[in-house]
Amino acid sequence: MPRLYLETYGCQMNVADSELITGALGRHGYETTHDPGQADVLLVNTCAIRDNAEQRVLGRMGELKRHKRPGTVLGVVGCMAQRLGPRLLERVPQVDLVIGPDGYRGLAELIARARAGERAADVALRGWEHYEDVPAERAAGPSAFVTVQRGCDYRCTYCIVPTTRGPERSRRLGDVVREVAALASAGTTEVTLLGQTVNSYHDGVHDFADLLRAVGTVSGVRRVRFTSPHPNDFSTRVLAAMAETPTVCEHVHLPVQSGSSAVLKRMLRRYDRGAYLGVVAALRRAVPGIALTTDIIVGFPGETDRDFADTLSLVEAVGFDDAYTFRYSPREGTPSLRLRDAVPDDVARDRLERLIAAVRRVARRINVGLVGSSHEVLVEGRARRGGLLQGRTRSNKVTVFEGPEEWIGTYRRVRLTGTTGSTFTAWPLTRELAVVG
Ligand code: 5AD
Ligand code: SF4
Fold it and tell me: pLDDT tens-digit profile of 169-181?
């Protein structure tokens, strides 16, 4: 059997795509290996969102090429493959094939051609591609990612994704529900619905509200999550579906990008600070106690000290549970390259540091306030240190606690006993009751 070694970089969509790739090649008799030295096919599923993501992949290619023996195929797939296309073949002579996110159906064939000595790139965008008939090969466990939408029709001026993943398209609701039902009958209890702007999901008949209600009532599904939504697509219907579907978890990752209306306008985010705060308020009305996390970019062209101060104050005003923070990275081919008033590197670096400190401060305050409360956790496995178990609350807080191996994959109630500021220690309540009783 030919052996596949696959490395994945970037977002959860790439993780899900790697499961598709594994499934697609599995149908052609491939088995996976974790040892690149044993592989017949080495693939790297890449991200193009920031330059440092691409630099890391280029560095990694330099290492992986050492594992090439005669007949071994080295391929680059995903967003960076899509962005650079044939240029990647020129730049890295050891690379045999380059395939974008819509080309995985042809992977086995391109591998065969590469074996015959042909170096090829397939970076066609296929606006119809959903891989509906390709069975994803997922890691075992109670949680599964389910892609419901591919591509993006927003045109945020900093973002390469519309170029690398093409136009937005949604799978049919019935197809998604069938997949979730099959997962649930095989033991999955937590599903995360994936899409670039997942709440703009529309299959021509059904919107995201319908999808949440349908997935959320599949027998055996206990938790539904989704990522990432766009603030403008939280319609009253979606908010009502979240409020009325008990399996939908109390956490939303709601990328804001900036707290300054002027910067948001240049980013073409299509909302201003006030509108974003309005969405936050509506989410909190619909789902009391909901945890909110976000993405923020600093150093976008033209960002002034006052703009940045608005971002800091927004972090306070919303009270984010956590945030991913980035320095603006200019991406070739995006409209933001034409904007003037680049922010000097040292200024952007300083802003990023101050932002991270603000995010930590706010998160710590929220998390300290949660100590003493009790939560349902899904036990995900062993924590990295100390032989403890690790679980996640519905609000997506990571907790560690003592317990037997058999709890992995089950749901437990725990009381939060302490916090590092970001994660929690906890006490399993069943144990506590046993001690008392
Ligand atoms: N530079 C920096 N960060 C970016 N992101 C997207 N494009 C860029 C860029 N050019 C960030 C956004 C997005 C997250 C996935 O990555 O915050 O929400
Ligand atoms: Fe990029 Fe904006 Fe689309 Fe998100 S919504 S993928 S940031 S263009």
Answer: 999 999 999 999 9
